[in-house]
Structure formats: C-alpha cells, structure tokens
C-alpha cells in the first residue's frame, strides 16, 4: 500500500462516448502543496470530484488518505476537507453560527467544539468579526472563514478548487500564508487555480489538458522543459511554459494548430 496522501493509477471517467479524464496517474506526498492546472473543460473538476468520493471512476484506481475512492467513497469524504471557488457558507448566519453549523455537520465531539471554534477564529483572524453576518464580510474574510470551516474536523487532506477566485491580490497572498502554515503542520493541500503567481507557490504542478495529464513536476522543472520546447525563450514565465507544453502535446498528437486557432 502506498504511503502517499493521494495516489491514482490510470484513473478514468467517461460520460457516454466522451472521455473527461483519460487514464491519468500521479501521486501527492503527505504535507505537499500540489497544484492541478489546466484550461476550462480540461478535466480538473471531474478529477477532484472522483478524488473526493463524489463521482465514481469509470476505470483505474485511486486512494486518498488511505481510502479506496471506488470502494470507500463515504470514508473518503470523512477524511478530506473541500473548499470550492464559490462561497459555500450561509450568508444569513454569523461567523460564529457558520462555525457551529459545520461543527455539527462534521460531528465534532462536544468536548472539542469550543477549542476548534477558537482555533478557526484565530487562524482566520476573525475574532473581532465573530458576531457579524457572513454576508457583510469582504471576499478575503469570507474565504478565510470557508477555509476554517473546511478544516474544522482536522482532515489530513484539503482540496481547494480555485479558492481565491475574485479575491484581491493582498487577500490572496494572506490566504496562501494560511495554506503554507497548514502544510507545514502536516496537511496535504491539493489546489486548482488559474493564477500563475499562485501556481508558483506549489511544490509540484500537474497540467491536465483534454483529460490527459501532460506534464508533472516543480514549477522550475516545467519551465525548463518548456524552454527546450520553445528554444530562444531563456526565461519563460509559467504562463508561457504552459502554453508551450500544450502546443507540444498538440503537435505530438497530430492536432492541426491552425484549425484549432481558427
């Protein structure tokens, strides 16, 4: 049995004749901050839904926190935290009431609820806002509250699906400081993002395109590989590197780039 926090082998998802995720394989180490990137419709969200036990794979295998995602979907859900790009909490409830509600959802033991609530408030810097309705919080404060609620039950793995979408740069930076702190404490973080500066914060990145995992490595490794693909570009940005890697994949697959661009 693998000791990796996340391990998938030939994971596949089909919807009729359409292949959304095409036999991808990778591992994520415990305590790693792993970025999962790709264009819209590439298969990111479908992959995350399979890893979270929400969607059954059509083929292949995978484990998350030691749970078989095919055979143990409910156990998988109990061992992860999940935060989507949409604010998923209750805006008519106060900060404190949201925390209390999710404590019940996650079945936090009665003797632990007060301590976990205090931890979330401190971690998110929301002590002074505990009585305010979530609706009046800024985007950055809302995301911190959502993050705190996602980890109330102290899951070993946290899935973040574009968690800072629509948040200002300063708030995004503070949010990533929280992510780093959790990773240093041992939490594995699996994150999707469209922001290339955020991708640079990840220890490793996986690039999924048309359902296939076409590149895997550190940001520096992917930029170096793309530099070989696009000679003459001594210092590619990560954004340029991904464009080059996607172009390399299309050429290797026989895709007519002129028709794609048209």
Protein described:
With 262 residues, this protein is α/β, with parallel strands linked by helices. It folds into three domains: 1-79 and 156-214, Rossmann fold (3-Layer(aba) Sandwich), CATH 3.40.50.300; 89-154, no CATH class; 218-262, no CATH class. Helix content is 39%, strand content 23%. The chain has helices spanning 44-51, 73-78, 95-105, 110-124, 139-150, 169-184, 196-199, 219-229, 238-252, 257-261, and strands at 6-15, 18-28, 33-37, 59-64, 67-68, 80-83, 157-161, 188-192, 204-209, 212-217. The strands form two sheets. A six-stranded mixed beta sheet has the order 6-7-8-3-9-10, with helices on both faces. Strands 2-1-4-5 form a four-stranded antiparallel beta sheet. Helix 3 crosses helix 4 (110-124), helix 3 (95-105) runs parallel beside helix 5 and helix 4 runs antiparallel to helix 5 (139-150). The longest helix is centred in the last third of the chain and has 16 residues, at 169-184. The protein is globular, with a radius of gyration of 19 Å. The model is unreliable at 257-262 (pLDDT under 50).
Secondary-structure map:
Blueprint: E1 6-15, E2 18-28, E3 33-37, H1 44-51, E4 59-64, E5 67-68, H2 73-78, E6 80-83, H3 95-105, H4 110-124, H5 139-150, E7 157-161, H6 169-184, E8 188-192, H7 196-199, E9 204-209, E10 212-217, H8 219-229, H9 238-252, H10 257-261
Helix pairs in contact: 3-4, 3-5, 4-5, 8-9
- The CATH first-level class of the largest domain comes to Alpha Beta
Total strand count, please? 10
Major sheet: arrangement of strands: 6-7-8-3-9-10
* SSE order: EEEHEEHEHHHEHEHEEHHH
Which radius of gyration do the C-alpha atoms yield? 19 Å
Report mean pLDDT, rounded to a whole number. Answer: 88
CATH architecture of the largest domain: 3-Layer(aba) Sandwich
Structural class: alpha/beta
The N- and C-terminal alpha carbons lie at a distance of 48 Å
Instruction: Let me know the CATH homologous superfamily of the largest domain.
Output: P-loop containing nucleotide triphosphate hydrolases
Tally the helices.
10
Shape: globular
